[in-house]
Design a protein that fits this description.
Order of helices and strands: EHEEEEEEHEEEE
Helix content: 10-25%
Structural class: mainly beta
Strand content: 35-45%
Number of strands: 11
Oligomer: single chain
Strand order of the largest sheet: 1-3-4-10-9-8
Largest sheet: 6 strands, mixed
Radius of gyration: 16 Å
Shape: elongated
Number of helices: 2
Length: 150
């Protein structure tokens, strides 16, 4: 997929009035293939151009609360079951891992992309390692709460 110079015009979940049921199904599959390393919330954006559905799924940033790190925004880590996502497609044309960002105007960053057909729709799915720069924290992590002993 070509590099996009300006931020793409995506429809964000919080702004959506319409979302196809098949897309919700695919997002649920990806969410179930993610193993969070800590607390994690997912965000996503999508657009449809010329019958190609581009979907970005990413961990929303977390804001740390309390202690010396108060107010720091971090990106939660996770692992992805690549085979689980791959086998959800009826036809899988390509899977690509991009280990490094292309530069300061790169909106996608590090990601794993899947291109293929899902429930009859041509889909370009990106699982981003971090949220886009304009994404607000999706939740807070209280560093002052006492951890329970097992």
């Amino acid at each position: 997929m070509a590099q996009i110079e300006n931020a793409p015009q995506f429809v964000e979940k919080r702004l959506m009035s319409y979302q196809p049921a098949w897309m919700e199904s695919l997002i649920d599959i990806v969410a179930n293939c993610i193993e969070p390393h800590s607390e994690l919330a997912l965000g996503y954006r999508w657009r449809n151009e010329d019958d190609l559905w581009e979907i970005w799924i990413y961990p929303t940033p977390a804001e740390l609360v309390g202690g010396a790190a108060d107010g720091t925004v971090v990106s939660p880590g996770f692992s992805l079951d690549v085979q689980g996502v791959s086998t959800s497609f009826e036809e899988l044309e390509a899977v690509h891992w991009r280990a490094q960002s292309f530069g300061p105007h790169d909106q996608e960053g590090e990601n794993l992309s899947f291109e293929g057909v899902y429930e009859g729709h041509h889909v370009f799915l990106l699982v981003l390692s971090q949220a886009p720069d304009d994404e607000e924290p999706g939740f807070k992590v209280d560093l002052t709460r006492k951890k329970e002993k097992p």
